[in-house]
Hints:
Shape: globular
Keywords: Transcription, Transcription antitermination, Transcription regulation
Structural class: mainly beta
Largest sheet: 5 strands, antiparallel
Protein name: NusG-like N-terminal domain-containing protein
Domain NusG-like N-terminal: 4-102
Strand content: 35-45%
InterPro entries: KOW, NGN-like_dom, NGN_dom_sf, NusG-like, Translation_prot_SH3-like_sf
Helix content: 10-25%
Number of helices: 3
Pfam families: NusG (PF02357)
Radius of gyration: 20 Å
CATH superfamily of the largest domain: NusG, N-terminal domain
Amino acid sequence: xxxxxxxxxxxxxxxxxxxxxxxxxxxxxxxxxxxxxxxxxxxxxxxxxxxxxxxxxxxxxxxxxxxxxxxxxxxxxxxxxxxxxxxxxxxxxxxxxxxxxxxxxxxxxxxxxxxxxxxxxxxxxxxxxxxxxxxxxxxxxxxxxxxxxxxxxxxxxxxxxxxxxxxxxxxxxxxxxxxxxxxxx
Length: 185
């Protein structure tokens, strides 16, 4: 990994991650597409595992300054993720953490909507209106929320679709083709 060129995040069209990664490599642009094993079962067939992108729709790229123009013409890409009017930089330590998780070969689940520690509100179901802190994601469908009630705390398990975050998200914009001016050197 280069010390001078930052890691950026490139948005792709749906199911085009492999195509974009191949095109980037053909243009000699450093790209990293983290993948994980996902079980699949065909009708009346054996259970198999397929390699799927860990973050569907995203590829990490580390282009040199002279390669930005080549990135504008990648089939299947939608442009860099921006923070304001500049490409959002992926901290190298965060990328290394992703690489460690992927290389561990453990079951990985990505929930882009909610993170433990967030303030959330139950918006449907029998607990509608309760606000609290998301303690943990029990599985893909269930969450454990800690709700302060009467000077004490009560934990409740709810369906993931019944909860929304109360915290503002850091705003990143995608799908805007970038002119690549103002990129950090």
